[in-house]
């Protein structure tokens, strides 16, 4: 490969996942130099603060995603600790959330789905059925996507594929809810209120939740219980008292550097920060306890900007 022109190596690299590019870069000194070029990596990773261009390849190798397993009665999760009611985490009038996630197929090759963000009146580890529970974001076993915080019946917003990264964002402001998938508006509701159980959802967690009754998107028609997510989540973020604009949502999806910093301003929760929740407190933010994790692995995986989701040893 020492004889290959740089443009040919760049073209080959553009068809490969990052970890395959890394393997190819180790073939010889020529591939190492050419495939370490920042241009080979800027479209694959979210640049860290104050990043140095020639370190993007190294940054790629250090990235990890959260792997969620639905095994057991309740599945795996990251708990948003210190009893953050929905109103504590989000506020009641204006808020936003977004999540990078990838549903993965189970051992049988079929989509399992699961609850990505769930809330209920009792904690995850309490041996009692929570009388109030809601699925804020979840995927059904048929790939149907559900996302809502308002008091209207849920309906499928899109059909997702296993093994693919998706970016989902929700904004709520004074009775108006917008849901975006991969930067595009897919649902708009106006003139409504937060769900009637909102103020009884004293506990939140990422990766599992409860589902019962006539709720849509259950794993089986007669299911009544916890519904753990099977797949990867790279990050889940919450903005309290901030409504992301359509342009900001788009920048979060594309990693557009010109508007990304503005979009991230005011974020009060990030799963990547190990579930640390911050609430407003004069004169500034007060950090609450880090979220507990249950059966969570951090794994090497293709990055969300690569769209295809695969894990690597």
Automatic annotation (TrEMBL):
CDD domains, per the entry: F-box_SF
InterPro entries: ConA-like_dom_sf, F-box-like_dom_sf, F-box_dom
Domain F-box, chain residue ranges per copy: 1-44
Protein name: F-box domain-containing protein
Organism of derivation: Lagenidium giganteum
Higher taxonomy: Eukaryota, Sar, Stramenopiles, Oomycota, Peronosporomycetes
């Amino acid at each position: 490969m020492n004889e290959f022109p740089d443009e040919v190596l760049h073209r080959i690299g553009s068809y490969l996942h990052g970890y395959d590019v890394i393997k190819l870069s180790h073939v010889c000194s020529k591939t190492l130099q050419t495939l370490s070029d920042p241009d080979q990596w800027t479209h694959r990773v979210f640049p860290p603060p104050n990043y140095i261009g020639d370190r993007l390849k190294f940054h790629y190798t250090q990235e990890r995603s959260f792997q969620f397993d639905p095994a057991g009665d309740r599945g795996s999760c990251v708990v948003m600790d210190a009893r953050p009611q929905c109103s504590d985490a989000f506020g009641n009038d204006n808020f936003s959330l977004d999540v990078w996630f990838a549903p993965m197929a189970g051992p049988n090759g079929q989509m399992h789905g699961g609850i990505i963000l769930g809330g209920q009146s009792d904690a995850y580890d309490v041996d009692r059925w929570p009388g109030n529970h809601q699925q804020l974001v979840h995927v059904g076993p048929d790939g149907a996507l559900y996302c809502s915080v308002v008091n209207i019946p849920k309906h499928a917003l899109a059909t997702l594929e296993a093994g693919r990264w998706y970016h989902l964002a929700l904004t709520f402001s004074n009775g108006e809810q917008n849901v975006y998938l991969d930067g595009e508006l897919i649902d708009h509701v106006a003139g409504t209120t937060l769900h009637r159980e909102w103020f009884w959802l004293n506990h939140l967690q990422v990766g599992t939740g409860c589902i019962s009754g006539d709720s849509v998107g259950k794993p089986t028609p007669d299911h009544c219980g916890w519904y753990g997510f099977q797949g990867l989540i790279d990050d889940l973020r919450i903005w309290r008292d901030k409504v992301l604009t359509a342009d900001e949502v788009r920048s979060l999806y594309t990693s557009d550097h010109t508007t990304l910093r503005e979009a991230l301003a005011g974020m009060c929760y990030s799963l990547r920060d190990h579930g640390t929740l911050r609430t407003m407190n004069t004169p500034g933010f007060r950090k609450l306890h880090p979220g507990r994790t249950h059966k969570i692995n951090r794994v090497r995986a293709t990055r969300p900007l690569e769209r295809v989701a695969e894990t690597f040893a």
